[in-house]
């Protein structure tokens, strides 16, 4: 599987429209080479450089298996949103308190849909996905704290 974005390159800065204190919109994501027997996709975006440990920005599951583009600022129809560490069930963008942080987008191809209620956490999603991941892909962007 492959995950990319027309809005930023792997390892490069995320666009300003993603900033939590800006437009707070997710970048467009392109998903390629999804295994043929995939039944659904899941997506997690988190920041491992947060002062109190990994900070979760976005959690989605039951994304339709045929999804190849997640449009800028949108959640794919049919997808279920989990609770991020801001306490929301939406995308919440970068807001690093200092320095440059890394933001990982990970997409997972699953062999089933998941019976998990809206607002479930990343930890609950990971537990439910266990044993169902066919493939995964990762894309990382950076973001610097405002001076």
UniProtKB/TrEMBL annotation:
It comes from the Bacteria. Keywords: Protein kinase inhibitor. Pfam families: PBP (PF01161). InterPro entries: PEBP (IPR008914), PEBP-like_sf (IPR036610), YbhB_YbcL/LppC-like (IPR005247). The keyword Transcription regulation does not apply. CDD domains: PEBP_bact_arch. This is YbhB/YbcL family Raf kinase inhibitor-like protein. GO terms for molecular function: protein kinase inhibitor activity.
């Amino acid at each position: 599987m492959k995950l990319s974005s027309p809005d930023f390159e792997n390892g490069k800065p995320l666009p300003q429209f993603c900033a939590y204190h800006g437009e707070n919109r997710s970048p467009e994501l392109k998903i390629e080479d999804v295994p043929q027997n995939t039944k659904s996709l899941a997506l997690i975006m988190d920041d491992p450089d947060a002062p109190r440990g990994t900070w979760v920005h976005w959690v989605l599951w039951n994304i339709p298996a045929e999804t190849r583009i997640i449009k800028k600022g949108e959640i794919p129809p049919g997808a279920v949103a989990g609770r991020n560490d801001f306490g929301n069930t939406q995308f919440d963008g970068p807001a690093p308190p200092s320095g440059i942080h890394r933001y990982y987008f990970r997409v997972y191809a699953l062999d089933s849909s998941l019976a998990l209620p809206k607002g479930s956490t990343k930890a609950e999603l990971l537990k439910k996905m266990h044993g169902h991941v066919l493939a995964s892909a990762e894309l990382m962007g950076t973001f610097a704290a405002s001076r």
